[in-house]
Amino acid sequence: MWEGRAVGARREIAALAAAGLGVVELHRAAIDVVERVVPTDLTCWASLDPDTAVISTMTSGPNPIPAEYEPLLAACEYGGGEPHTFAELARRPEPVARLSDVPRREVARSGRLNEVWRPLGLGHELRAVFRVDGTCWAAAGMVRRGEFTDREVGFVASIAPALAAATRVAARTGAHRAGGEPAIVVVGPDGEPRAATAAARTWREELDAIAPGRFAVVLRAVVTGARAAPSGTFRARVRDASGGWVLVQAGRLIAEDDRETVVTVERASGGELLGLLLAAYGLTAREREVCHEVIAGRSTSDIAARLTISAHTVQDHLKSVFGKVDVRSRGELVAKLRPEEHAAPS
Fold first, then answer.
1. pTM of this prediction?
2. Quick check: helix, strand or coil at residue 149?
3. CATH of the domain at 219
């Protein structure tokens, strides 16, 4: 039965999470685990920015998607109107969805099916998001010639939380990495870059080392987000080829005008990564509040007064935080979460 195989798969995934792998290495190994039960012709997994559901990394199975189809897939993922985008699935209670379960009239309008999968001789798609504690950390797209069975859907749904937990652990790796001059790119109404600073070429090469056209995919994602947002701005964190974090921000030049959008690309700072790391360590909302206060250098009594809790409760939260982050003092905690900051007093 698939239930027994799911138990074995969850154990393997837990072992992978404990091995200290980066996200790409983890997903590459996990794809092998899943393929034994749910074989595919093409598969691509992605880690997601937990705040925006924008794709942070991409990892292909043994047969990668042909590079010429990557721009089409990006347009489908971020252009709107496509069924089962990762951002849509991240908002749904069920983590797994088959394209064949979508009403026929909607399937007929699917760009992924008509412009990518069918030209490749494939007709069935299964997509999943990997969510734990209410946060979506990764997603997977699986495609093949034959239909995905109910048992296969059940298997993927059963192991999805384990894959999310493993990705959350892997997201902690490579968080603080230096280097990289900020770049600016001006994108026109057609979605194509009109102008860019010299540093943009370096970032393009860095992101395209992950997959051809990756830089263009990221630009499309944040530009689409900025044009859809009432504020006219959008930001996302993505991984580079060496496992570091990159901050990509887009803003319409004029809030009411979609003609041009400015995108900045730079190395993510400790402040930009703090929320992600607090989530990656599985801290509760109150524990995150305490961490923010500790990073600000406040004493136990000050934290208790600001959060309207007792000093004893503050210490209880800190004990829990130290265990989750694997540190022994406030100074070690700050050094791990914000290495560029001076350590707070213990």
1. 0.78
2. coil
3. 3.30.450
